[in-house]
Design goal:
alpha/beta; 6-stranded mixed beta sheet; 391 residues; 10 helices
Length: 391
């Protein structure tokens, strides 16, 4: 556990201008002469020796510095961590009042809450902690203690994806994941499955978009593509959709989707299939759905593959149009953070042109407010949810 101390190593920037972003790349700094363990707390100075801030250093990672504090009086220690977590919890409970709508919400959203490299999700009495940075992993005891102060009696499950551990040079050996837990959202029951390989167990970021879509889908025939645990389909049926079909490749997550529909006394037809194959067959059968959701998983983490991702978004949206009759609704989503909103909307323009259809953009939404975005970290607005009318 890092000890709170005013005497911390100094990292010097190559520029005399302060960074405009909490991430500082390795090419922007002078590497220290002494070897510092990944995740060390350091003081950052500009090229002229002026104080810039304090944060985590990692000489093994592309993000060499994660700036956390800019006040010289602030020390990055267990108390600082606890204060930031307390601030994040107050936002959700006192301002957003999320407990009125759900017991599944994001507690800490990394840079959005000033805690770069840390994500925490709450699912009823389970807190799922995901580590993205060696610095946060070194503070894990303080993080876990602070969380339990706000959620007494909660069960903690923590993990880090293997590629993150490799990039950041730390070893997080996750315990066995907890059993799926019952959560509630806008009056409906769902199962969150931490450790099942689907983010931190439940897509709470789409909570408000599920409700919005359901309101628009009343009386319609719904198709939920890349349906995961079936949240859109279940919400739509509860709101009065005529019928709903969900399609996903993952047989395991479809079992959870079926359990979600059953928990709410709703009938949803879930099918295991590749959406491209399924849509082609549906087109051949002459099937039509007048409310379609397309919410695929993240398509790339590589900046060099963004164009490939946009081509795949084009292909799946273009095919989806073939099952939507004139006047139908399309909610198309992207959680690929490297794909910007402007590029995603341009992709839709090209889809409409190619199909000879008119796509009216009704609303462009993102993740719920429990996923705040810092003004200087636009990458934090990763989710695009575009509500469209198709003629």
């Amino acid at each position: 556990m890092p000890a709170p101390s005013a005497a911390v190593p100094v990292i010097r920037l190559k520029s005399d201008r302060a960074p405009g972003h909490p991430w500082v790349w390795s090419a922007q700094v002078h590497k220290p002469e002494e070897r510092l363990p990944p995740g060390s707390v350091v003081e950052v100075q500009d090229a002229r020796g002026r104080f810039v801030g304090r944060g985590f250093w990692n000489g093994h990672a592309r993000i060499a510095l994660r700036l956390l504090a800019h006040d010289p009086a602030e020390a990055i220690d267990a108390d600082w961590i606890a204060a930031r977590i307390a601030r994040a919890v107050r936002l959700r409970r006192e301002l957003l009042r999320l407990d009125r709508d759900s017991d599944a919400w994001r507690v800490v959203h990394s840079e959005g809450d000033g805690l770069s490299g840390l994500v925490v999700d709450r699912y009823a009495d389970v807190l799922v902690v995901e580590y993205f940075a060696a610095g946060m992993w070194r503070f894990r005891e303080a993080i876990h203690a602070a969380l339990l102060e706000h959620f007494p009696g909660a069960r903690l499950y923590w993990f880090a994806e293997s590629h993150v551990q490799k990039q950041e040079s730390f070893d997080c050996r996750a315990a066995a994941p907890p059993a799926p837990v019952a959560v509630h959202e806008h009056g409906l029951a769902f199962h969150a499955a931490p450790g099942a390989g689907h983010k931190t167990g439940f897509f709470a970021d789409q909570r408000d978009n599920r409700r919005r879509f359901a309101g628009l889908a009343r009386g319609r025939r719904v198709l939920d593509l890349c349906c995961n645990a079936g949240g859109f389909a279940v919400h739509a049926m509860a709101a009065g959709a005529r019928e709903a079909t969900g399609v996903d490749m993952d047989a395991g997550i479809l079992e959870i989707a079926r359990a979600n529909a059953a928990a709410n006394g709703l009938a949803v037809d879930f099918r295991q299939a590749d959406i491209f194959d399924w849509l082609r067959d549906a087109v051949a059968r002459g099937e039509r759905y007048d409310a379609v959701v397309l919410d695929p998983a993240k398509l790339t983490r590589d900046r060099n593959r963004v164009l490939d991702a946009l081509k795949k978004y084009f292909a799946m949206n273009r095919l989806a149009l073939d099952v939507i009759p004139p006047g139908g609704l399309l909610l198309t989503c992207s959680c690929t953070g490297l794909v910007g909103e402007a590029d995603f909307l341009e992709m839709l323009r090209r889809v409409a042109l190619n199909a000879g259809r008119e796509i009216q953009l009704l609303e462009v939404r993102g993740a719920g407010p429990d996923h705040p975005v810092r003004a200087d970290v636009p990458e934090g607005r990763y989710l695009k949810a575009v509500f469209c009318r198709v003629d």
